[in-house]
Design brief:
- The protein is α/β, with parallel strands linked by helices and 266 residues long.
- It has a single domain (15-189, 222-253), classed as 3-Layer(aba) Sandwich (Rossmann fold), CATH 3.40.50.
- Helix content is 41%, strand content 14%.
- It is built from seven helices and seven strands.
- A seven-stranded parallel β-sheet has the order 3-2-1-4-5-6-7, sandwiched between helices.
- β4, α3 (104-131) and β5 (136-141) form a beta-alpha-beta unit.
- The chain binds NADP nicotinamide-adenine-dinucleotide phosphate.
- Residues 19-26, 44-46, 61-64, 89-92, 113, 117, 141, 143, 186, 188-189, 191-194, 264, 266 line the site of NADP nicotinamide-adenine-dinucleotide phosphate.
Length: 266
């Protein structure tokens, strides 16, 4: 189905979990999925506000804590009976700057959130899908940095490359258990992460100009556009893949939206 022309009520009542839903892309995805009538499980370290008028389970969860992620999945299943779509969106960009100057503790924290957090969320959702009938869509939010080396972003490039391989592996491991996995690169989405990028010196991040230009041109992908892509390309693919028994394309890139966003680096 073409991006933009579908029945928005088709997913009413389905259940989506979004990590990192307190702000930025995650909060925007939550608002869009709520407008489709989906029920939501939302978490971040700061407890997210559920969209008004939407059935939601919200909690303060640090994705580096496997037990907390599992417990949250259990709370959502207890409230709604099942989870159809799980989006590992929580992520950080810092530390930015030459690796030779990086604080080892900051590197450790980055890897814990961006890699371990995605491993924990993916594992929790896979266990859930195994335990109930039908398929489920796993979406791990990636980035153009997974495949392009950006000076100043050693940790981020490494962690997003890892996110893509986690997605490739779990897509294969779980293909006979109903889980359909994707790594989705959303394009440039205006958020606190973009504010951080734009405020970085060219000495720490030589490509900062490129992101300043995206802001000047307002050439962002909106969270609503990313949400629509995820619903059409990931959730609907999973619903249609009941016994696919193989893996299709795992790594997806959200195309430029109506605002004409340039291809993503973040
Ligand atoms: N913005 C872009 O242009 C862009 C482009 C490509 C990819 N992405 C990816 O999109 C995702 C969202 O980015 P964003 O731009 O929306 O960033 P953001 O505005 O900084 O939001 C990040 C979210 O992750 C949560 N988070 C951070 N650490 C966490 C932890 N340990 N446990 C649970 N939640 C945590 C934050 O909430 P708390 O601080 O309250 O925990 C927040 O809700 C990230 O994976 C990012 O790499 C963004």
């Amino acid at each position: 189905m073409a991006h933009g022309s579908r029945d928005r009520a088709a997913h009413a009542g389905q259940v989506a979990v979004i990590t990192g839903a307190s702000r930025g892309l995650g909060a925007g995805l939550a608002a869009s999925l709520a407008s489709e009538g989906m029920r939501l499980g939302l978490c971040a370290r700061t407890r997210p506000d559920g969209p008004v008028g939407t059935e939601s389970v919200t909690a303060s969860v640090d994705v580096t804590d496997a037990r907390a992620v599992d417990a949250f999945a259990g709370d959502v299943v207890e409230a709604f009976g099942r989870i159809d779509l799980w989006v590992n969106n929580a992520g950080v960009l810092a530390p930015i700057g030459p690796l030779a100057e990086a604080d080892p503790d900051a590197l450790h924290r980055h890897i814990d959130i961006n890699i371990l957090g995605v491993l924990h969320g993916s594992a929790a959702f896979a266990r859930h899908v195994r335990a109930r009938p039908g398929t489920g869509a796993l979406v791990n939010i990636s980035s153009g940095a997974a495949t392009n080396p950006y000076e100043g972003w050693a940790a981020y490039c490494a962690s997003k490359a890892a996110v893509e391989m986690i997605s490739e592996v779990i897509a294969r491991e779980e293909r006979h258990h109903g889980l359909i996995a994707f790594a989705v690169s959303p394009g440039v989405v205006d958020s606190d992460m973009q504010v951080l990028i734009r405020s970085t010196s060219a000495g720490s991040f030589p490509q900062v100009d490129r992101f300043l230009r995206v802001q000047e041109d307002q050439a962002f992908n909106s969270p609503a556009w990313v949400a629509q892509f995820i619903v059409e390309q990931c959730l609907e693919a999973a619903i249609g893949a009941a016994t696919r028994g193989g893996t299709g394309t795992v790594r997806l890139r959200v195309p430029p939206g109506p605002g004409g966003a340039r291809p993503s680096a973040t």
